[in-house]
Specification:
The protein has a 6-stranded mixed beta sheet, sandwiched between helices. The protein has 10 helices and 10 strands. By secondary structure, it is α/β, with parallel strands linked by helices. The radius of gyration is 17 Å and the shape is globular. Bound molecules: coenzyme A.
């Protein structure tokens, strides 16, 4: 459900679960986390590309998977946390190609990318509050840093939908292009062709000290885990699973 390949120094991670809108399961997170972790020390990997299927980047975490955690609440040893830690600590440039839906973590993971290409039909949405949840993946810090508090509030608290143009204006997206996969690959090949050490050092300088961000990811996850057992969240997830109208 994650297609992995390595082409000329570019590690490609393609989410491939179109029948479920690329909703991310534990196995999918694990494969992506491993690729990011091993890429850090693999000289053959110069850049990562993360992409989806036509019309869908990802609909976010698999809601059925989340329901499994509703009783326990501790996410610290889960594949999703492993993935979030891996993407936050990833040391190789990361390029994303977004066509269609990017929901929940599909939007917040983009805040860890260096280059994001979106198609004109891309949709960015994080319905955390509507699901009784809170922002994750460090987005409570990265969102305001990238787009300012006001727009981050709209996206992360109001759950407003950003189209590609708005996401580009907000600084979440670098370029809006028709063929996102081709644009992302061209960009990744250009990154891979540059001197890798200078690229790594430069990127590290731009990103700065990430200790506070890593702490935020853990804190968000602790609260998110607690919220999974909240009546608000259980009702929202059950409504989705049974396709009953929400609210
Ligand atoms: N988790 C689990 N399954 C999901 C899913 C998710 N996040 N998103 C979509 N699916 C499944 C649907 O249950 C459906 O499965 P089925 O065919 O077995 O019934 C299938 O993917 C297609 O989704 P559907 O809702 O029929 O497509 P749509 O085009 O009408 O709507 C979405 C697409 C993405 C808008 C809608 O599925 C949705 O709102 N998904 C939930 C998004 C979400 O809240 N993610 C979590 C954020 S924290």
């Amino acid at each position: 459900m994650i297609q992995k390949s390595l082409e000329g120094g570019v590690s490609i991670l393609r989410m491939d679960r179109a029948d479920k809108k690329n909703a991310l399961t534990g196995d999918m997170y694990t494969v992506m986390a491993e690729a990011l972790e091993t890429g850090n020390t693999d000289d053959a990997v110069r850049c990562h590309v993360i992409c989806g299927q036509p019309g869908v980047f990802t609909a976010g975490n698999d809601i059925a998977d989340f329901l499994k955690y509703a009783g326990g609440g501790d996410l610290s040893n889960t594949p999703v946390l492993r993935f979030l830690r891996a993407i936050a600590r990833n040391e190789k440039p990361l390029v994303a190609a977004v066509d269609g839906l990017a929901i929940g973590v599909g939007t917040t993971l983009l805040m860890h990318c260096d280059m994001v290409f979106a198609s004109p039909s891309a949709i960015f949405k994080t319905p955390f509050v509507d699901l009784g949840l809170v922002p994750e993946a460090g987005s409570s810090v990265l969102g305001p840093q990238i787009m300012g508090h006001a727009r981050a509030f709209e996206l992360l608290c109001l759950g407003e939908t950003f189209d590609a143009e708005r996401a580009e204006q907000a600084g979440l997206v670098n370029w809006v292009v028709e063929d996102v996969d081709a644009a992302a690959m061209e960009c990744a090949r250009a990154i891979a062709a540059k001197p890798p050490q200078a690229m790594a050092i430069s990127r590290r300088l731009l990103r700065g000290d990430r200790t506070a961000l890593n702490d935020t990811i853990e804190e968000e996850a602790r609260i998110f885990g607690e919220r999974l057992s909240s009546p608000e969240t259980i009702a929202a997830f059950q409504a989705f699973m049974s396709k009953k109208p929400k609210g």
